[in-house]
Design the sequence.
């Protein structure tokens, strides 16, 4: 029973630390010691960039392209605390 509590505590600590970094809890299963976290994609305000591009006579277009190309895509983590108290992380990027 103490091992189960330790695994649950490790999962809680890992999830808590991740939420402080901006991750959102999608699914948490304390019976399987598993959680799925999501880091939302970074949105680009295309309307604002289009207006700036028009007013700067297209000089803003390369900057807009860089911002759009380097935006953060949605990421998901599946965290599992194994019976050996090791944490296993599967990282996925959602396009």
Sequence:
């Amino acid at each position: 029973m103490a091992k189960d509590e330790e695994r649950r505590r490790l999962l809680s600590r890992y999830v808590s630390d991740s939420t402080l970094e901006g991750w959102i809890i999608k699914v948490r299963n304390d019976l399987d010691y598993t959680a799925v976290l999501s880091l939302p994609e970074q949105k680009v305000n295309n309307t604002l960039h289009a207006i700036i591009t028009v007013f700067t006579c297209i000089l803003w277009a390369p900057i807009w392209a860089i911002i759009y190309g380097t935006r953060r895509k949605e990421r998901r983590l599946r965290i599992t605390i194994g019976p050996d108290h090791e944490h296993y992380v599967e990282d996925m990027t959602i396009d």
